[in-house]
Structure formats: structure tokens, C-alpha cells
User: What shape does this take?
Amino acid sequence: MSEVFRGGSALSDERMAIPVPVLIAGSAIIATRVLSVLLLANELGYEEVINFIHRSAQSWDSTLIFIVSQLIFFLELRCAIALMRGRNWGRWTFFATQVVVLLYMMVATLTGIYPEIFSISGENNAHIIGSLIAQKFPDMLILLLLFVPLSSRHYYR
Assistant: This one.
């Protein structure tokens, strides 16, 4: 313990230092997920949130989709914490959740699967896919921060 106070090097150890891209990516995941839930709740209002939950519990398929969406939300938060701690499974799991969400949103939008909250409105398929890519652009930037910089790749080895 006295070595920590004398040298002060325990906190600046090479393996403990989180690379800036990883720190930004983890913070961005947490911030965007929490803010999106808060903004959605503010947009819908208390009664509409309760109605949405009630409608989601009306049938097995919509209940399953609702539960899976909540699990993905919490899994993304867990991935953010894990990747800031240097766990390689965190970034790969976050990548996998983004692929699943992108595929489901594309299928839900193009086929009209309930619930409407996961679909994107548009005039034609090209406009819808463009809107979907624009919506997922922040997540693509986060993935780039996790996989492209050399410091990020070395951090997970």
C-alpha cells in the first residue's frame, strides 16, 4: 500500500489504462441507451407507456418481442461496462446485438410486423433503408471506435 503513495504508479499501470476510443465508446453506449429510453418515455407520456406495455402483453409474440427488447437493452448496458473493463466478449456481444437489432428492424419495417415502435416509416424501400442506416449510424461509429483503432485492438488482447 505504501508503494502506491510513494510512486503513484498503481493507477497509471499500462494494463489498467483504458484507451480513449474504448472509454468514449463505452460512455456513448450508456448515454445513448439511457437517453433514448428517457426521450421515448417523455415523447409517449405516462399513459401511453402504460398502454404500450399493456398492448405488448396481449399476445405471446408481442410479449416475446417486448421482453427480448428489454433484454437487449440491458445486455448492451452490460456490454458497455464489460468493454471498458477490457473484456473482449463485451465488444463482440455488442456487435452481435447490433446485427440482431438491425436485422429485426429491417424485417419489421419491410414486412409490417407488430409493434410499430420498431418499424420505420418511409415512401419506398430505399428511403426506409436509408433512414434505418441513419438511425444506426451512432452505433456504427461506436463499433468503429471498438474495432478500428490500434489502441482498442491491443486493449482486448
Notes: The radius of gyration is 19 Å. Helices lie at 2-7, 20-56, 60-84, 88-111, 125-147, 150-155.
